[in-house]
């Protein structure tokens, strides 16, 4: 149903919405010095909160990003974060992005400042980048 709404909005806007979104990164903060390095080729990301939403991925990555159901074993979702929990299973979406798409995700998640980006093994045995909150900050 959500995908149908997105497609309806794109259709109403004449299909130009994707182009506009793809060229409007001004809402993304710059990456901090501590941001993790980017991989050289396409990479997989596991989203369990806002990144599980196709509209958020469209806006942040700048293009539609297909995803599929995935699960992260031994981690439990706690609000916008994950906590280790043996036996738990966090469900979400896994999707592939280019290095530029990952850079945009890092900017959105404020990687190195608000969130860390680490590789974790999903329930199907594949690996994907996962964002997790860093220690609480006193100033934003």
From TrEMBL:
Domain Gamma-glutamylcyclotransferase AIG2-like, first and last residues per copy: 45-133
Gene3D superfamilies: Gamma-glutamyl cyclotransferase-like (3.10.490.10)
UniProt-listed InterPro entries: AIG2-like_dom, GGCT-like, GGCT-like_sf
Cited CDD domains: GGCT_like (cd06661)
Pfam families for the chain: GGACT (PF06094)
Protein name, UniProt field: Gamma-glutamylcyclotransferase AIG2-like domain-containing protein
């Amino acid at each position: 149903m959500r995908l149908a709404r997105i497609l309806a909005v794109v259709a109403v806007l004449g299909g130009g919405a994707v182009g506009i979104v793809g060229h409007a990164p001004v809402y993304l903060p710059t990456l901090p010095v501590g941001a993790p390095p980017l991989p050289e080729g396409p990479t997989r990301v596991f989203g369990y909160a806002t990144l599980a939403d196709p509209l958020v991925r469209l806006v942040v990555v700048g293009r539609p990003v297909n995803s599929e159901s995935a699960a992260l074993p031994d981690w439990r979702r706690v609000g916008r974060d994950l906590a280790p929990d043996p036996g738990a299973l966090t469900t979400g979406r896994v999707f592939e992005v280019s290095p530029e798409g990952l850079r945009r995700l890092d900017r959105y998640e404020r990687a190195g400042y608000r969130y860390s980006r680490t590789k974790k093994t999903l329930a199907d045995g594949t690996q994907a980048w996962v964002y997790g909150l860093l220690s609480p900050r006193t100033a934003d």
